[in-house]
């Protein structure tokens, strides 16, 4: 660094001209007219062409490199983390007022709802769903079993007894690789 060099402070937005150099201390006159003293490794010389910067090799080496932490989750994700969609086919859950509906209308609404969810799961490649149908007289369960039997690549069974009791059916969709 020599008197008259244009410099900039590395860690601050201060520019100026060198007015004095004593060892490793450099005094600059800032663009605001103040005289400030910095260590030589805190300054960078600015050429008259602002696109050319002159770096002191020791400055570059002494700059601290920010080390990014290496976070990686090595634990494999299990399929149990994704919740299984559950659809309750009880008529109270499907319509607001079911008192005026007869048994045929109720059963039709329940099966149509189940068919919609099956089609949606196939279309969106959802591997498994659960229908909650209740125990009752078994009419809904038998119609649901008949409906599921009409689909290729669909396997179904009674759902987990501890979680659902006897009133639920698990449906698995065999996915073909496209």
Describe this structure in words.
- The protein is an alpha+beta fold.
- The chain has helices spanning 57-62, 91-94, 103-123, 139-149, 161-164, and strands spanning 6-9, 15-22, 25-30, 35-39, 43-46, 53-54, 86-88, 128-132, 154-158, 168-173.
- The protein folds into 2 domains: 6-58, SH3 type barrels, CATH 2.30.30; 82-173, Ribosomal Protein S8, Chain: A, domain 1, CATH 3.30.1370.
- A 6-stranded antiparallel β-sheet has the order 4-3-2-1-5-6, with no helix packed on it. A 4-stranded mixed β-sheet has the order 7-8-10-9.
- Helix 3 runs parallel beside helix 4.
- The longest helix has 21 residues, at 103-123.
Summed up:
The chain is 26% helix and 27% strand. Strand 2 and strand 3 form a beta hairpin. The two termini are 67 Å apart.
Quick tags:
178 residues, alpha+beta, SH3 type barrels, Ribosomal Protein S8, Chain: A, domain 1, 2 domains, 6-stranded antiparallel sheet, 4-stranded mixed sheet, 5 helices, 10 strands, 26% helix, rod-shaped
Which helices and strands occur, and which strands form pairs?
Elements (H helix, E strand, L loop, with lengths): L5 E4 L5 E8 L2 E6 L4 E5 L3 E4 L6 E2 L2 H6 L23 E3 L2 H4 L8 H21 L4 E5 L6 H11 L4 E5 L2 H4 L3 E6 L5
Parallel strand pairs: 7-8
Antiparallel strand pairs: 1-2, 1-5, 2-3, 3-4, 5-6, 8-10, 9-10
Helix pairs in contact: 3-4
Shape field: rod-shaped
Helix segment count? Answer: 5
**CATH topology label of the largest domain:** Ribosomal Protein S8, Chain: A, domain 1
Number of strands: 10
| Average predicted confidence as pLDDT | 83
Structural class: alpha+beta
Name the strands of the widest sheet in spatial order: 4-3-2-1-5-6
Determine the N-to-C terminus distance.
67 Å
Identify low-pLDDT runs.
none
Alpha-carbon Rg, integer? 37 Å
How many strands, what sense, and barrel or not for the largest sheet?
Answer: 6 strands, antiparallel
Instruction: Quickly name the level 1 CATH class of the largest domain.
Output: Alpha Beta
């Amino acid at each position: 660094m020599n008197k008259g060099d244009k410099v900039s402070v590395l860690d601050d937005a201060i520019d100026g001209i060198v007015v004095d150099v004593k060892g490793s201390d450099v005094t600059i006159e800032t663009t605001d007219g103040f005289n400030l003293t910095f260590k030589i490794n805190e300054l960078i010389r600015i050429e008259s062409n602002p696109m050319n910067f002159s770096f002191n090799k020791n400055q570059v080496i002494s700059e601290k490199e920010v080390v990014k932490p290496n976070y990686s989750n090595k634990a494999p994700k299990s399929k149990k983390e994704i919740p299984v969609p559950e659809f309750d086919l009880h008529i109270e859950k499907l319509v607001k007022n079911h008192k005026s509906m007869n048994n045929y209308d109720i059963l039709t609404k329940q099966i149509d709802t189940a068919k919609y969810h099956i089609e949606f799961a196939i279309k969106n490649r959802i591997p498994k769903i659960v229908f909650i149908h209740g125990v009752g007289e078994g009419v809904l369960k038998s119609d649901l079993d008949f409906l599921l039997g009409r689909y290729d690549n669909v396997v179904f069974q009674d759902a987990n007894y501890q979680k659902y009791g006897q009133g639920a059916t698990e449906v698995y969709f065999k996915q073909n690789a496209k």
